[in-house]
Write a structure and sequence with these properties.
The structure holds two protein chains of two kinds. By secondary structure, chain A is an alpha+beta fold. Chain A contains seven helices and six strands; from the N terminus they run αββαβαβαββααα. The two termini of chain B are 30 Å apart. Classes of the chains: A alpha+beta, B alpha/beta. β4 of chain A pairs antiparallel with β11 of chain B.
Chain lengths: 207, 275
């Protein structure tokens, strides 16, 4: 990849990261609203560290949870990752051990949760959870299907986010200076100015 | 149609279609013949899952518990499981089996907790271990989406079939390819919304073969407690429990014969006498 192309790619990658984050946020916001739930989260699976990372949170805990990590090998989210199966649990708060585990990782103790794996092609990318849906009536399979459809959307957003981050890492790894330029470009709101800068940058790099 | 657009394999109550059997089907193959009077005694059921909590009042005795890991050379490492259940799910499945087949043996093979990266190989290793140990029924509320494992899983499912081990596997209600529930050598299970634990339906349009109770099931969970749970993974142990009942009365049935009994005694099939 030539340097000017790399710079252009970097400039494209940085805003995409933000856009996919916004998409994920929108998905958890809508999931929470549709189910009338107190909170909803998307966890990203970090395969290298075997951890789940809060990637987007709506409702309770939204301010402090994004970026928090916990081990992916245990708990309900861990089971959903390993089994690729969705599940719904009610009255989770009645179980002291479950509550403690969740409280330790999130600071919030739910009474019930819906959890569905985020699958894209062959990979499991994370988990979508909806916490404390009001028990207005008997739970139905239609709601399970609805959650599955949301999960499909979230999985695509998470997959795009992952791709963007990998691209970003490659760019940063090869040329830290270029990544700094790209970051600076991200700050600029004036697209015309960005374009002029890119052309100028390309000229400098070619000379 | 709206229903066809949704990816679900689950079965809403109003969509149950009766399945008419050929006229020459043996009259004697009823639920009473199949499991009347059985408690599942003598049948060994394996819960391939997150572990099973010891001394849980809704599970009772757990005859054995091991945890599975895979070492750097790809070899299966089996150790006595001292951890119990790392999630609660395996305990829920064990409790459901126990509620249907009170005298069956319950054995736990834990495949959760070895870290994510090894989860596919650990699942295969655990299944291989369970098959070679010779359990009569393996409850598998798990699936994998990795196509590189499907060949190996297929071989394992066939091995189970020929060794007289019934693999009961959860179907997926997401629009992805996953295994082993799609194989014909296993019994695949999705959910219906009825509350009777002995109601199960045969699906005339596989790959999902059976629908069992999977919505708002009161199931055992960690700490000796119980929770209300929903999912295909809780429908599956209902079928495992019914398999244990049938094998308790007819211990020499092969998986093929056992599946025939299930399909014949399903609640929407002519051979179901009481329901």
């Amino acid at each position: 990849m030539s340097d000017d192309v790399r710079a252009a790619v970097a400039a494209g990658v940085m805003p995409a990261d933000e856009a996919f984050r916004e998409l994920l946020q929108s998905i958890v916001d809508v999931a929470r609203a549709i189910f009338g739930a107190k909170a909803s989260s998307v966890f990203l699976l970090d395969e290298e560290s075997s951890e789940l990372v809060f990637e987007a949170v709506s409702g309770a805990g939204a301010d402090e949870l994004v970026g928090r990590r916990f081990p992916s090998g245990t708990g309900v989210a861990g089971w959903v990752i390993a089994s690729r199966q969705s599940l719904v649990i009610e009255d989770v708060g009645e179980d002291p051990r479950f509550s403690r585990e969740v409280a330790e990782s999130t600071g919030y103790v739910p009474k019930g949760l819906m959890a569905v794996p985020l699958l894209h092609e062959e990979r499991v990318l994370g988990v979508l959870e909806v916490l404390d849906r009001p028990q207005r009536s008997r739970f139905s399979l239609v709601e399970m299907d609805l959650l599955g459809l949301f999960a499909g959307q979230a999985a695509i957003a998470l997959s795009l986010l992952g791709r963007t981050r990998r691209a970003k890492a490659v760019l940063e790894g090869r040329d830290a200076a270029l990544a700094r330029v790209a970051e600076a470009l991200e700050e600029l709101e004036d697209r015309a100015a960005v374009d002029r800068l890119l052309v100028a940058l390309a000229d400098v790099l070619r000379s | 149609m709206h229903e066809e657009e949704l990816p679900a394999w689950s079965l809403a109550a109003e969509e149950v279609a009766p399945v008419i059997l050929p006229g020459a089907w043996p009259d004697g193959l009823t639920r009473d013949w199949a499991w009347g009077g059985s408690t599942g005694a003598g049948v060994r059921v394996c819960i391939l899952d997150s572990g099973v909590e010891r001394s849980h009042p809704l599970v009772g005795e757990v005859q054995s518990a091991v945890s599975i890991a895979v070492d750097d050379d790809g070899r299966t490492v089996v150790t006595e499981d001292e951890e119990g259940d790392l999630c609660g799910h395996g305990t829920a499945c064990a409790g459901i089996v126990r509620s249907l087949a009170p005298d069956c043996e319950i054995h736990s093979v834990r495949v959760l907790g070895a870290g994510y990266t090894g989860s596919g190989p650990v699942l295969l290793a655990g299944l291989g271990y369970a098959i070679r140990t010779g359990y009569d029924v393996i409850n598998m509320s798990l699936s994998t989406t990795k196509s590189k494992f499907t060949g190996l899983l297929h071989d394992l499912a066939d091995e189970a079939y020929f060794r007289r081990t019934m693999l009961v596997a959860s179907a997926h209600n997401l629009p992805v390819e996953s295994y082993p529930w799609r194989f014909s050598s296993v019994v695949s299970v999705a959910s219906h919304e009825q509350t009777d634990p002995l109601v199960f339906y045969v699906n005339p349009e596989p790959p999902v073969e059976l629908y069992a109770r999977g919505v708002e099931v009161d199931a055992a969970w960690l700490g000796g407690g119980a929770l209300r749970v929903t999912g295909n993974s809780f429908a599956t142990p209902h079928v495992s429990g019914i398999c244990a009942l049938i094998l308790g009365k007819h211990p020499r049935l092969t998986p093929f014969q056992l599946k025939t009994v299930l399909l014949t005694t399903a609640s929407n099939v002519g051979g179901a006498d009481e329901r």
